[in-house]
Design a protein that fits this description.
This protein is mostly beta strands. It is 8% helix and 58% strand.
């Protein structure tokens, strides 16, 4: 399945090259003191390597989350295609395959692996709004997320980047419903929640070291109506650093 996604993305990229479209690529190595995904924290500190490639509207990437303080590993494969609808409006859709190599079955055969379809819209406005909807075929979850971001130059090659996200997840399987806190009044016998919301803020200082090479250092905060999967908290504050190289962007 993984090879099928990447082969399809490769075919689209080659077709773009044949039409004379420009190739883009990027490599990123980062570290985060906590791992938070859609408002919930599945792990503590992680390394976050990312490799991405695109040509024309086609793109593919491989990203990982590798635990630094405890055994956790996740490798995600994405392939998609984007279209420019108007001068300031674009849309894209694709598939993401989530894998967990440390769990039984390995990368391809793990029972916890899931496949997700997504689609989104983005606008080239001052706040750069992005709206995405995703559906996980195994978990049967539906997720919707709105993101606003802005970059403000501070000096030559130095800028501050801010972003705000807000999302809602509808949980498809009753076995994954969120149980009420054990100590909460009236929790006993109450059915679990079939949905939750989350929101977050990030602030990064970006230094453009050379053309295509940039360093980012920043902090993040997250709040959610669901407890974290790692420490049970519904609020997180953490920090991260990354070094990224991009070609043709």
């Amino acid at each position: 399945m993984r090879r099928t996604f990447l082969a399809a993305a490769g075919v689209m990229a080659l077709a773009g090259l044949a039409r004379g479209e420009d190739l883009t690529a990027g490599l990123t190595m980062g570290w985060e003191s906590e791992y938070v995904f859609r408002g919930r924290q599945p792990a503590g500190g992680i390394f976050t390597p990312l490799a991405e490639i695109g040509c024309g509207g086609a793109y593919a990437d491989i990203r990982a989350a590798v635990g630094t303080g405890e055994a956790y590993s996740e490798i995600d494969y994405t392939a998609g295609y984007g279209l420019q609808w108007a001068q300031a409006l674009s849309a894209d859709a694709g598939l993401t395959f989530y894998t967990y190599p440390d769990k039984d079955g390995g990368v391809l055969g793990g029972e916890d692996n899931t496949l997700e379809a997504f689609a989104g819209l983005a606008a080239e406005l001052a706040a750069k709004p992005e709206l995405y909807v995703a559906y996980d075929f195994q978990l049967r979850n539906v997720a919707a997320e709105l993101k606003l971001s802005h970059a403000r130059p501070l000096a030559d090659r130095l800028a501050v980047e801010t972003a705000a996200t807000a999302g809602h997840v509808w949980i498809g399987l009753e076995e994954n419903f969120i149980e009420p806190p054990a100590g909460e009044s009236g929790a006993a016998g109450r059915p679990g929640a079939a949905a939750y919301w989350y929101c977050g803020l990030t602030l990064d200082l970006r230094l453009d070291m050379t053309d295509g090479l940039s360093l980012r250092v920043g902090g993040r905060v997250n709040a959610s109506s669901a407890p974290g999967l790692y420490d049970g908290a519904d609020y997180s504050a953490w920090y991260g650093v990354s070094l990224a190289y991009s070609y043709g962007a």
